[in-house]
Design the sequence.
């Protein structure tokens, strides 16, 4: 099984264990994917390898869920910092 075609996907949810994103095409469960995720807490993209665990129709697109397979300590710190920045921004708006 090869890698899916590169594309731009709309992120919907990010956690320390995986990601949910919107795709124009369905993805086969078990497919390995490489994701490049921009984070507010770092200058470079977070590059992660994941495995598709969910692919469900959602209107004219698909909600695709993937579990991260490789996760470094610095990646964990950067994602946690990203969440913290988002919470602070959200709290100051309300």
Sequence:
């Amino acid at each position: 099984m090869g890698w899916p075609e590169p594309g731009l996907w709309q992120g919907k949810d990010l956690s320390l264990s995986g990601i949910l994103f919107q795709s124009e095409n369905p993805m086969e469960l078990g497919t390995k994917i490489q994701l490049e995720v921009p984070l507010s807490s770092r200058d470079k993209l977070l590059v992660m390898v994941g495995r598709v665990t969910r692919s469900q129709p959602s209107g004219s697109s698909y909600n695709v869920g993937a579990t991260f397979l490789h996760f470094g300590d610095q990646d964990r710190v950067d994602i946690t910092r990203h969440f913290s920045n988002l919470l602070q921004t959200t709290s100051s708006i309300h």
Notes: Residues 73-93 form the longest helix (21 residues). Residues 10-93 form a domain with the Thrombin, subunit H fold (CATH 2.40.10.220). Strands lie at 10-14, 18-23, 32-37, 46-58, 61-68.
